[in-house]
Design goal:
The chain is α/β, with parallel strands linked by helices and about 240 residues long. The protein has a single domain, classed as Spore Coat Polysaccharide Biosynthesis Protein SpsA, Chain A (Alpha-Beta Complex), CATH 3.90.550.10. About 40% of the residues lie in helices and about 20% in strands. It contains eight helices and seven strands; from the N terminus they run αβαβαβαββαβααβα. A seven-stranded mixed beta sheet has the order 3-2-1-4-6-5-7, sandwiched between helices. Strand 1, helix 2 and strand 2 form a beta-alpha-beta unit. The longest helix is centred in the middle third of the chain and has 18 residues. The protein is globular, with a radius of gyration of 17 Å.
């Protein structure tokens, strides 16, 4: 694995922009940022860590400002108010400076050290996407996730195990050409559907998933779920016959 990793790092030689979308993650974000600094720093390529604070009302921005003062590779980008996960991802993509873009959530449910699991596939893929091995979520969220993935396969032909897994590494040139419109949780699905429709090469990699230790999840709220289904239906109408 070490030799394979060393060889594959060449594909990342131009640099990696890692960004972390956050909303009220003051208890989690520091560990995520520090983990990315350590992991990316060990690869010996140029990189940055951008935290996109989506209108947090807690100390998330304060924590990130302190980290940015300690390490200039850390940047904070803020939304003046909470406008949604999809908007946070679009801001992260737009803020990226390097040819490869990686994102993971600020809730600490993924270990930044597992980034190295994605690296060996960068020479042959446009998107390297994680899927949650032994997903550590309540039963109703696991059921919803399974049904969601079935719909995506049936309607769009995108055959990935876990479209919403927030552990993805992709070529910036691919995502910058995609007209992402979702403001909510649907954005990960939209990203993969549009990229696959344009012929992007997608590789899946299992990554460990961990329980949230601090704060509350919002992705399972009824309004979030209903909006995601509505956006899925709209995208199906737009892309029918082209994906």
């Amino acid at each position: 694995m070490k030799a394979e990793l060393t060889h594959s790092v060449r594909a990342l030689a131009g640099g990696v922009s890692a960004f972390v979308p956050c909303h009220n993650e003051e208890g989690n974000v520091e560990a995520v940022v520090r983990g990315l600094l350590t992991t990316l720093g060990a690869l010996g390529v140029p990189f940055e860590v951008v935290v996109v604070d989506d209108g947090s009302t807690d100390r998330t921005a304060e924590v990130v400002r302190r980290l940015a003062q300690q390490d200039r590779r850390v940047r904070l980008v803020q939304h003046p108010r909470n406008i949604g996960y999809g908007a946070a991802l679009r801001t992260g993509f737009a803020s990226a400076r390097y040819p490869w873009v990686f994102f993971t959530d600020g809730d600490g449910q993924f270990d930044p050290r597992d980034f190295v699991r994605l690296v060996p596939h960068t020479a042959s893929a446009d998107l390297v996407v994680g899927y949650r091995a032994r997903r550590q979520d309540p039963p109703h969220r696991r059921l919803f996730g399974w049904l969601w993935n079935v719909l995506v396969r049936l309607w769009f032909g995108v055959r990935v195990r876990d479209v919403d897994c927030a552990f993805k590494l992709l070529r910036r040139e691919v995502v910058r050409g995609l007209p992402l419109r979702s403001t909510g949780a649907f954005v990960s699905t939209e990203l993969l559907c549009r990229a696959a429709g344009r012929g992007a090469r997608i590789v899946e990699v299992p990554v460990p998933h961990h329980p949230r230790r601090w704060g509350r999840q919002s992705g399972g709220r009824p309004d979030v779920v209903l909006r995601a289904f509505w956006e899925l239906w709209k995208l199906r109408g737009e892309l029918r016959g082209r994906v």
